[in-house]
Amino acid sequence: MASLTLYGAEPAPFVRKVRLTLAFKGLDYTQVPVFPFSPDKPQTFVDNSPTGKIPLFQIDDNFITDSDVIIAFLEREYPNNSLLPADNILAARALWFNQYASSTIVSSLGGHLFVEMFLAKAFFNREPIQADIDLALNEEIPSIFTYLETELSDDYLVGNEFTLADLSVGAMFVFLKHCKVDCDASKWPKVAAYIDRVHSLPIFAKVIAEEIAAFKAMGVM
Ligand SMILES: N[C@@H](CCC(=O)N[C@@H](CS)C(=O)NCC(=O)O)C(=O)O
């Protein structure tokens, strides 16, 4: 068994995606906390990260970066508990939701909501931008919920099984939990039930509990 090390820290959503993938596949790994904006980064990270972004992943003496590349590697290397359906159309649909989560959803829930509510003061030493929070709450999040409400017909987003789509969308929705923003079940009943369903899965429940503990230890919550 190769030695696996993940460089990166909570609350980074792309680190969260990799942690969930490792948990889904039942893989043991070591996590080295790295904060990209800190001046004190481990030398191994500095020497092997081409962009300085987290996550960085080490397999024995090999390094790869970018959450999607890391997940693609883990899919090929550990094909049991696959995150992609065998059917090519369903796999493409799962990849699309992963892409949507890592662009549209993260920019709203991560960039506009979580960063402003929790990190602006604690990490960036500035006042939160209320206009960004309002934009997320009043426009972006309702639009994301409305889109997903039309896409959900089963328990999960693709082919009624847990896939990369749910791992990625669920990972970004963890920000809603941290920010205590609920999905209004009277407006988006399928999405509200979906969020509860995905976040109740053991891999999510564990990551959410660990993140809350880490934020409290950092004094962010
Ligand atoms: N496409 C990359 C994005 C990684 C990324 O943007 N990470 C953020 C933290 S969530 C980061 O390290 N930002 C520091 C920077 O932009 O310098 C991935 O999926 O891993």
Automatic annotation (TrEMBL):
<dbReference type="InterPro" id="IPR036249">
    <property type="entry name" value="Thioredoxin-like_sf"/>
</dbReference>
<dbReference type="InterPro" id="IPR036282">
    <property type="entry name" value="Glutathione-S-Trfase_C_sf"/>
</dbReference>
<dbReference type="InterPro" id="IPR004046">
    <property type="entry name" value="GST_C"/>
</dbReference>
<dbReference type="Pfam" id="PF00043">
    <property type="entry name" value="GST_C"/>
</dbReference>
<dbReference type="InterPro" id="IPR040079">
    <property type="entry name" value="Glutathione_S-Trfase"/>
</dbReference>
<feature type="domain" description="GST N-terminal">
    <location>
        <begin position="2"/>
        <end position="82"/>
    </location>
</feature>
<dbReference type="Pfam" id="PF13417">
    <property type="entry name" value="GST_N_3"/>
</dbReference>
<dbReference type="InterPro" id="IPR050983">
    <property type="entry name" value="GST_Omega/HSP26"/>
</dbReference>
<dbReference type="InterPro" id="IPR004045">
    <property type="entry name" value="Glutathione_S-Trfase_N"/>
</dbReference>
<feature type="domain" description="GST C-terminal">
    <location>
        <begin position="87"/>
        <end position="220"/>
    </location>
</feature>
<protein>
    <submittedName>
        <fullName>Glutathione S-transferase family protein</fullName>
    </submittedName>
</protein>
<dbReference type="InterPro" id="IPR010987">
    <property type="entry name" value="Glutathione-S-Trfase_C-like"/>
</dbReference>
